Fold this protein.
Amino acid sequence: MMTHGIDLHKRDLVIATVDAQGAEIKQKRVRAREADVLRYFSGLPGPHRAVVESTGSWYWVADLCREHGIDLTLAHARKLKAISSAKVKTDTVDSLTLAPLLRADLIPKAHMISSELRPVRHVLRARLRPVEKRSSCLNSIARLLEKYNVDAVASLPPLAQLQATCQEEQIQLLEQQRKRLETSLPPQLVPNEDVQRLLWIPGVGKIAAFTLYLEIDGIDRFATERDFFSYRRLVPGADNSGGKVRHKRSKEGNRYLKTSLQQCRRARRSVLPRDQSLRAEEGTQEEPLRRARSPPRRSRASSTTCSRSRPTSTLSSRGVPLSRTKQSQWPRRASPTAQLTPLGSHPH
C-alpha cells in the first residue's frame, strides 16, 4: 500500500509517497496536469491512497483519483493546521507531513460532496453573489440620497445622479444574472424527495429548500446533533480561562446554511401566526416576559417586547391573512410522499 501526501497549488503540486512501513519512497513536484499526475502514480506499485487539503482547487484531483481507482481523503484544512503546525512550512514539508498522517489514520476528514451534486451546489452558491452585490448597489444609492437629503434620484446633482444611474444599471444586470442562475436549478432539484419534504415546512421556500438540501448533503453524516448545530454556525465560540466565561463570534461552519436559515426565520413570520395566538389556540397562557441577562441591542429588544405586548393580529406584515399551513404552489407537489423522480434522471 502506497500512501501519498499531495500539497496542491494552482500551477503545480508536490506529492510525497511513503510505503506501508512509513519509509519515504519518492517526492516530486509535478505540473497541475492530469497526465503528469497519472505518470507519477503509474511509476509506483499499487494500491494507492492519497490525501489532499480542502482548498479551492481539489475538484479535479478528486475526479481524477476516482476515475483511476485511487482512494482519496479530503483533509479538513483548519483542523489539520492544529495537528501539523510547524516552524518551517514549505510545500515539501507539507506533503511529507500529510503522507504519514494518512498512514496512521490521523487525518481530520472534511466532507466530500458527490460529483453529481457538486456543480449544482456551486451554481447555487454563485447565485448568492449577485444578490449581495445588488444589496450593495441599493445601499450606495440610499447613501447618495441621504447625503443630499433628497427622496429621488432625479433630484440629485448631475454627477451624483450619474453615480446613481450606474448603480441602477448594475442592479438590472445583477437581476438578470440571478434569474439565469435560478432557472438552471429546478429541473435537477424539484423532483428530489428531500426537497419536496422541505418545501412543506413553513418559511422554507424554493431557494431555501435547495440550499438546505445541498449544503447539508445528508443528515446522517453528522455523528450528533451538536455537530450539526455547530456546522450551522449556531454555536458561539468560547474563550474561557481562569473561571471567566467569554463568548466570541465564530466563523467556523457553513455560512451559506446560516444565511438560508436566517431567511427562513424571517419568512416564517409572514406564514404562521405569532406565538401569542398559537398559545391561545392551544389553551395555554403566555409566560411573563423576563429581562434577559445579556440583552441585545435596544432596537431588537424593543421589537421583541412590542410583539408580545400588543394584541394578536390576523394579518401578516404584508397584509395577507395568516395561516398555519402553507398554500400548495409550485414547485411543491401534491404530497411529499408522491412518486418522485430520482435526482439526475429528470429531463433537462
In short: DSSP finds 13 helices and seven strands in the chain.
